[in-house]
Write a structure and sequence with these properties.
The chain is mostly beta strands and 78 residues long. It has a domain of 41 residues. The chain has one helix and five strands. Strand 1 and strand 2 form a beta hairpin. The longest helix has 7 residues. The protein is globular. The N and C termini lie far apart (52 Å).
Length: 78
């Protein structure tokens, strides 16, 4: 049985997002993560454990304990 860390409650997982640990509900997918982070899905890229995940796979890609994500948002300008 996996041990809970100090930031974690039962039913949660700990992932690293942009170098910061964060507790999230187990069973969360990338679409739900984008909603929790209040990001615009059209203007971002997500790398999960070193692999860029296509937008069409966000809803079916579930997060698991220890995942490492980099979330990059696009900013317009000139």
């Amino acid at each position: 049985m996996a041990q809970l860390n100090a930031q974690q409650s039962p039913g949660e997982i700990v992932v690293t997002i942009n170098s910061q640990e964060r507790s999230l509900p187990a069973e969360m997918n990338l679409t739900q993560l984008i909603e929790v982070l209040k990001l615009e899905p059209r203007y971002l890229a997500i790398e999960l454990n070193g692999q860029v995940i296509s937008r069409k796979l966000h809803a079916t890609t579930r997060l698991t304990e220890g995942d490492v994500l980099e979330v990059v948002t696009l900013v317009g300008g000139g």
